[in-house]
Amino acid sequence: MSKKIDESELPPGVRKGFLRDNAEVILFAMVVVFFMKTFVAQNFTIPSASMRNSLMIGDHLLANKFIFATPQWDWESTLFPMRKVERGDIIVFRWPYDRDQDWVKRCAALPGDTLELRNRRLYINGKLITGDFEHHGAQTPSGPTPGPWPLGRDAGETIQPSGLWRFADPEVVVMPKQGRTDLTEDGSFMDNLGPITVPPGHVFAMGDNRENSADSRYWGFLPMDHLRGRPFMVWWSYREGGDDNQKANVPTNPGDVVANYVDAARYFLVRTRWERTGLIPK
Prior knowledge:
This protein is α+β, with helices and mostly antiparallel strands. It has a single domain, classed as Umud Fragment, subunit A (Ribbon), CATH 2.10.109.10. The chain contains 5 helices and 13 strands. It has helices spanning 18-40, 74-79, 170-173, 216-219, 254-271, and strands at 41-45, 59-64, 90-95, 98-109, 114-118, 121-124, 127-129, 135-136, 145-146, 193-197, 202-206, 222-223, 227-237. The chain has a 7-stranded antiparallel sheet with strand order 1-2-13-3-4-11-12. A 4-stranded antiparallel sheet has the order 7-6-5-10, with no helix packed on it. A two-stranded antiparallel sheet has the order 8-9. β5 (114-118) and β6 (121-124) form a beta hairpin. The radius of gyration is 24 Å and the shape is globular. It starts with 17 loop residues before the first helix and ends in an 11-residue tail after the last helix.
């Protein structure tokens, strides 16, 4: 039978007390969370329908933050699965026009690729790129129509460009975009564009919901140093307002944060998309 320890016999300084003991636990937890959020994974929420139906409004994602990082030492690439971004990757990045905003799109083209949009069809290096990820059509309760979109399939009436796509100019490519105005109001490059060559150090990003996505067609090439990671799992999906088409309420103040928590608590069971829990985005 073990002998009961008499705390009065413990060496000085061993007894920490309630406050110190709990403070150390909280501090350790904060350090772990900070490390995970900074270097490993981070939560992102989809606020709009630009990636529908690959990603739905209200999808809460965990993004791998180190996958596109450039290793400084050999052991980093051995310990962590780092690699370069590839065509078709869903990417999380800082929007060049406001780097405080994180956006999610799909990498359509890599540096050196020749890209062209003809009648809403995407061509990379002369090859038609399509699949079930590509969606076209109006924003209806059932959502846009999924692909693939071969040449014989009607994707709707297209818009012809009204002028030159200014982002093809090398001088414009190197200009800082922070705080500038994009071409979101000008939809003339939505369906027909190029051919253009993606410059070094950049990628071309597009949303899967082609008629409802403000992407590289409107604000130009994405610098690769703006990449933040790649979503690897939907851990929760919440149908905002009970409707797949309603945009998420992006908090701008503490009141919005509280309102979102209250709304989620009230309708958690009925508005959660249970079938998307644990989904791996592709």
